[in-house]
Amino acid sequence: MAGRRAYEVTPSAARLTRSLRDVGYDFPAAVADLVDNSVSAGATHVQVVIRFDGVDSRVLIADDGVGMSENALVEALRFGSRRSYQENELGRYGLGLKTASLSQGRSVTVVTRRSASADRVFIRELDLGLVEELDEWLVVVPRRSAELDDARELLGAGCGTVVLWRDLDRVLPESRPDGGWARRRLDSYARKTADHLAIVFHRFLEGLPDGRKVTISVNGEKVRPWNPYAPDEEHRRELPAQQFEISIGSSSGLVHLRRFVLPARTRFSSPDEFERLSGPLNWNRQQGLYVYRANRLVQWGGWAGIRGIDEHTKLARASLDFDTSLDPAFNINVSKMRVSIPPQLRQMVKASINELCTAANAAYRSSSPHGNPPLHREKNQRSSASSTDLALAGLALRSAAVQAGHYEALESILAIIRRDAPEIAAALGMAASE
Questions:
Q1: Angstrom distance (rounded) from CA 259 to CA 42
Q2: Domains within the chain, CATH numbers bracketed
């Protein structure tokens, strides 16, 4: 800066905090961002309490993690905190605690204890009313209240942290926040939050290979993990796992792909389990890529532009895993609910995804009860069985080529078959469009 004039331009605290309330969180995603912090703090139990009390309604997220020192607490309430993140830690931008909390209410209070042997509890609050009044970035020690006593009770005698949301202007209706509709709305949010946490943190709820396991409860009800790949179903199939090395700018690393074909309805263990595995988006929209960052699910549903959603491929689901070293390549957003699949990777996985969808198509058609007029059912069933056998033969060829490391050679052969005998390629499920 030698020889140049410089001006310090401090942003308006009041205006910037209002803007940061709209970075893209819904209620369940905001809670999930707080659970990220609990997981990073080594928590084994996270409690989410959504308590209706009219205008004094509140949300508390409590954990038994390591807690924070007084300085760390103040830093945690800084927008764009200066703390560094360890490899594969779930935090990213230093904004989550503040933006997630203030997206739902105007006040966030943190109650924390660093050591179970010390009785000292640190409490700090970020309140939009005060920030807007003084137009300054201020964190204060809050006055004692019933809500604060509630938070301290959840903290208990051990170490850990409780985050308290108050003044829930984005959650409660502006008119009659103490009415029956407001109560039903909070009840609905509790159910949606439990469903959301069940899928986003399903690996942590089930237990990771390194032994880490987290229990999460919402209003006292233990969250049951929702594993999109139906691991307990006997007739689930998994295609060979693959990995891809990508390098974009200064970011490089491995991306792991696993591919699953879920059973058709008639081969599921029970109708209830088939309905449960349909997921919050239902079967058609639940098919596709499930993208994980450091074992935390960040995006699911659809094929990321590789192909379209199709009724016949609704049984196909694939996991795509990357670690935090590839964050710049995947361009993860602040709320950690959207990523961009790098174009380089999209091309790499295209053949593998198409192979998976061919297998799912065959599984769907082999048990589909649709489209057989009664007078021609026997003939159509024979034709369907023949078509299924050919499609499965094509799948077997592709799978064998992948395992033998000769997939590109197979594609060269298929190109000739598509040119000279397109009807055979189509029967094998290997037409040019698949």
A1: 30
A2: 13-222 (3.30.565.10), 227-343 (3.30.230), 371-434 (no CATH)
